[in-house]
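User: What would this chain look like folded?
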Amino acid sequence: MNSNRKMRLPFVLTILIGLSGCQTDPVTNERPPIMGDLDLGEYAVGYKTIFAYDQTRNGVPYADWDGNLTHNHKVELGRQFQINVWYPAAHGSGDRINYSHYVDLRGRQTDFGESEEQRAFAKQTMIDQTEGLGNVTIGVIGGTKEEFTRENLDKLLELEVYGRLNATPVNGKFPVVVYPNGGSPAFQSITCEYLASHGYVVVAFTPKGRFSSGMEISSIGLEVAVDDFEFVLGKVSEQPNVDMDNVSFLANAISSSVGAAAVSRNDKIKALISLEGGLPSAFEQGLLNESVFYLPENITVPILIIYSAHPSINPEYTFQLKYSDRYYARLSGMSEFVMLNYGMFDAFVPNILGEHKGNTQKGFEEAHQLVLRFLNQEVNGETENLFDTAFLNARTEIDTTFVMEGFQTPPNIALLKDLFMKYGFDEIERIYQELKENGNLQPYSMAFYKDYRSWLSWQKDDEYKYRQRLYTLGCDSYPESARMNYYLAYYSMLTNQNGLAIKHYKKALALADNDPDLSASERENMIRYSKSDLEELKS
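Assistant: Here's the prediction, encoded as structure tokens.
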């Protein structure tokens, strides 16, 4: 991050007309219709599936979307992972497969064996879930849809895909993009093949819950899904063609919040893409904020947020991620799940999720072209402006774009401890003032003050003067925080600055009843101690 960055106000670009180009396989001169007009890259695409067990955790049974448990198995084998990998491959190698290959794998999420029973189960699951996603979509965009039938599914199953089974990998190491989804690999295979053709190793898997294959929609569920992601990333790191210094996270629906939770814990991730995800929603921000890891200063990677008109989605819910460069693009005629394969499936089963205002195939293609540009910019170091006017003028479905630049990231708490030991508290104050002068009015988080106070209290501040100076900074950043005022009052009293102590005790009392950051017990104790100390100071 550039230390001289200033927050830039959002700007809007309205797009008028345009078309995108397309390519065929340069060797076979064949282009599977399932790829639409996507501009395929220079590589052929290989595909393989890795079946793995995490033996540090018990296995789980399969749960459908209604919570019914099926396909039980021996839990002692370990937690099951079906890891789907697309990669740059040599042209002309590998075996051709149809979309049915990806759908059949839906039946092997917890039980890895193959059988006719499992294939039938996978196809029925695909029908049921497609119907369910259509009902959700209609609830957002209105209108009606036709029933998704077995005949509809058969039209899709016979489609040839671009990936080739077990094709020969191209020599070299390629950036990694992880794309989790509850419908892996059948829901996001087109995206994965597209990115792999442009030189990425793309990994898809299904995050699970604690007790079943169904991911839990809760803060705990997000953290369990991050654990799954890290196991998958560890298995992927064993592959010879991956560049583990360039890992990105791409996600749709609630998995985008899994991505944010993963970024807040794992600095291996260099970029985050919310492709019609729930990250910019109050509900999922609420889930994330219950995690101790999800703090703005922990989210520093560039983020691309692609979204459509939705009553629960508002980019402002991500504005607090002030240390990330955030890029926003709206496709107002789309809906959440057409950013999955369904956006392209409209060409074969019209209105598969219901009639949209925009062209779902073009919306899918334009969003994915933007995803590729973002990855090339942030991962491969291309200098082309993401929202270049010429690029945007050639799009029909993207109607709004804006950028919010991130602030310089403050040093982490380990570095701030080290700086104190080397240079004293003056250095902590100097960094604070420098960051503030560059536009960040709250350089240190509220959580930082608690942790740093505890650290100073262990044989580093016997006279309380550093903690008094610490909370002077805290009140400067958070003047309406009862907690900040209380601790500044307390340490001012201990350093014999009684007038300052009285002032801030009174302010803490005035703020305590309405401070949402206080628990009931904290509020009660703060009021009691403040009143007691005020009586002592006045006596």
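DSSP finds 17 helices and 13 strands in the chain. If you want, I can go into more detail on any region.
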